[in-house]
Amino acid sequence: MHIVTVNDSATGESYQYDADMVINSADSGLAFYLSQLNVLESKIYDVKYGNIIYQDLIPVDTSDPEWVDSVSYISYDGVTMGKFIAANGKDLPQSDIDASISEIKIGYAGNSYGYTIEELRKSQQMRIPLDVTKARMTFRGAQEHMQKVAFFGDASRKMTGMFNNPNIPLTNSTVNWATATGAEMVKDMNDLLVSIWIGSANVHIPNVFLLPSDKWAIASSKRMDTGTDTTVLQFFKMNNLFTDVTGQELEIRPILQLKDAGTGGKPRMMAYEKNPDNLTLRQPIPWRSLAPQAIGLRIEVPCEYKTSGVEVRYPGAAGYKDML
């Protein structure tokens, strides 16, 4: 046994290892990889990706069993009323319900990454930690796929998306934001909130408002009135239906993907009442890496996850407006 001590000038730490030890089989390489896997896993989830935002916009449900391919739920429309009746009680109005079953499709997906036996051998012998870049990229790829399905669905799998749901009411704006006044822009946005509130008989009041990023830039830089410091966006935050009715602040967010999400590639604004009853996205299996597998001269790490599109249970709780 030949023990060698190595000093790390960057951290000041010292490491000892047996210089005679080598990885001479797939089994020893696999064992060494397993010893590194716990570190890899924590590092993957510590990385923050700023533009993976679907979890912030959509309530994600992870409570379903891992084996499910779909989730069904029952919805019903009730008919009932009361009225004055005669003393004999034979003219009581009848109540009834019209029930239906809806299904949320869930897809099984995955990706993978790996290392060669040579990479593992050098990593162990030279005490160089395994590069986590491959693992980070793999996790990122899965997140990109889940966000794409969340926003735009997958027609081949009958999954609907957040920004192109055929059941959500759509209106069209007649206001050109490039030349509009601040008051016209505020009315254009507030009218969408009002249409959802009135259209649902005051049942749903939108608490989230989404704008294409380029339209957000206009609203955040244009002055509401000449000679004032208040921008159109600041004025809208203080003066909108949701804030006026509830006294709470409306959540307003810029969304890059809305730039061409409308009909014919038009920009689209969206408002909705965010809660798990109105809309949901199912993920029975969040992204995870499985046990490494020795294949030829490589150690492959398969990864899996399950995700659905966005199910809008109450389409009247949301609305689109395509912009010029």
Relevant terms:
alpha+beta, 8 helices, 2 domains, single chain, 5-stranded mixed beta sheet, Major capsid protein gp5 fold, 15 strands, hypothetical protein PF0899 fold, 5-stranded antiparallel beta sheet, 29% helix, 324 residues, 28% strand
What this model shows, in words?
This protein is α+β, with helices and mostly antiparallel strands and 324 residues long. It has two domains: 28-63 and 104-160 and 282-312, Major capsid protein gp5 fold (2-Layer Sandwich); 170-281 and 313-322, hypothetical protein PF0899 fold. It is built from eight helices and 15 strands. The strands form four sheets. Strands 4, 5, 11, 12 and 13 form a five-stranded antiparallel beta sheet that branches. The chain has a five-stranded mixed beta sheet with strand order 6-15-9-7-8. Strand 12 and strand 13 (298-308) form a beta hairpin. Helix 1 (26-46) packs across helix 3. The longest helix is centred in the N-terminal third of the chain and has 21 residues, at 26-46. The model is unreliable at 17-23 (pLDDT under 50).
Could you give the topology of this structure?
Layout: E1 3-7, E2 14-18, H1 26-46, H2 54-57, E3 60-61, E4 70-79, E5 96-116, H3 117-125, H4 133-152, E6 170-172, H5 182-199, E7 208-212, H6 213-221, H7 232-238, H8 241-246, E8 251-255, E9 268-272, E10 279-282, E11 285-289, E12 293-295, E13 298-308, E14 310-312, E15 318-322
Parallel strand pairs: 3-10, 6-15, 7-8
Antiparallel strand pairs: 1-2, 4-5, 5-13, 7-9, 9-15, 10-14, 11-13, 12-13
